[in-house]
Amino acid sequence: MEKDLAADRQQLRRLINGFQTSQVLHALTVLGIPDQLGGGRRSAAALAEATGCNPPALYRLLRASAALGVLDEDQSQGFALTPLGEGLRSDAAGSLAGWVELIGTPNFWQNWGQLVDSVRTGETGWRLRHGVDAWTYRSQHPEDGRVFDRAMVSMTGTHVEALVRSYDFAPFRTIVDVGGGRGALLAHILRDNPGSRGVLFDQPHVVETAAALLAEQGVDDRCRVEAGSFFESVPGGGDAYLLKSVIHDW
Ligand SMILES: C[S@@+](CC[C@H](N)C(=O)[O-])C[C@H]1O[C@@H](n2cnc3c(N)ncnc32)[C@H](O)[C@@H]1O
């Protein structure tokens, strides 16, 4: 019984300290360690030199990451990515590098720090801290907006294969992605459906960085980009309209 209680408390403490897990993964990724380990195992000292970090402090971060299961430590302070940690590399298939960058960003988690007041008042953390909603804030703070848009590309990259496998988009000549971010989903659908054309629709500051992604995916000649607010109107003429990870925001 006592043993069960101790195990329960340990599990509960792990949940309570969850923000530390988030910050370890965030710091590891923002410091570029997963990319540094893309070629294989490296020593803590070599990683400190390559990333310009304080060696003892970085060593502790690497050990914390090993305890979380994303790195493997050998007997001589050498570290390698585990299969789980591979997902933190920026060039991994279904990389979560953009997502972990957002989740640990000071502004993002300080907004989450308003949760008690948010539940008491019914107001969002964004409004309590900044006086405006998240979308207005991001439109006024381009760097925060870019981090968010990269996180959406990252998150959508992990869903997109399952989405295109489970639904046949081929019958649609024109597919409109409403609130489509930088176009990660639409680009994938168009790549798999050469007979379809796309219209990517999102706020002006978001779609202004979409062209590069669409060109990278080789679909820019079949995809038009339109800026605006879906509260005013959406592009007409589509045979299918997508709203992915949008409705829950409202
Ligand atoms: C959670 S993100 C999802 C992005 C994309 N659909 C995806 O799944 O990766 C919500 C998107 O809605 C867009 N959005 C928010 N308000 C909007 C508005 N009034 N008009 C157009 N787009 C809007 C945001 O800019 C953002 O790209």
Question: What is the gist of this entry?
Answer:
The chain has 250 residues and is an alpha/beta fold. It is 52% helix and 11% strand.
Verbal overview:
With 250 residues, the protein is of the alpha/beta class. It folds into three domains: 2-88, Arc Repressor Mutant, subunit A; 97-155, no CATH class; 163-249, 3-Layer(aba) Sandwich (Rossmann fold). It contains 15 helices and seven strands. It has helices spanning 2-16, 18-30, 33-36, 44-51, 55-68, 97-103, 106-112, 115-121, 125-130, 134-140, 142-157, 160-166, 184-192, 204-207, 210-216, and strands at 42-43, 71-73, 78-81, 174-178, 197-202, 223-227, 240-242. The protein has a four-stranded parallel beta sheet. A three-stranded antiparallel beta sheet has the order 1-3-2. Strand 2 and strand 3 (78-81) form a beta hairpin. Helix 2 packs across helix 5 and helix 4 packs across helix 5 (55-68). The relative contact order is 0.08. Residues 135, 152, 156, 179-181, 184-185, 202-203, 206, 229-231, 244-246, 249 line the site of S-adenosylmethionine. S-adenosylmethionine binds at residues 135, 152, 156, 179-181, 184-185, 202-203, 206, 229-231, 244-246, 249.
The gyration radius over C-alpha positions equals 21 Å
Count of extended strands: 7
Overall average residue pLDDT: 96
Based on helices, strands and strand pairing, what is the structural class? alpha/beta
Beta-strand share of residues: 5-15%
Helix content: 40-55%
Which CATH first-tier class of the largest domain would you pick? Mainly Alpha
Could you give a short account of the major beta sheet?
4 strands, parallel
Subunit arrangement of the protein? single chain
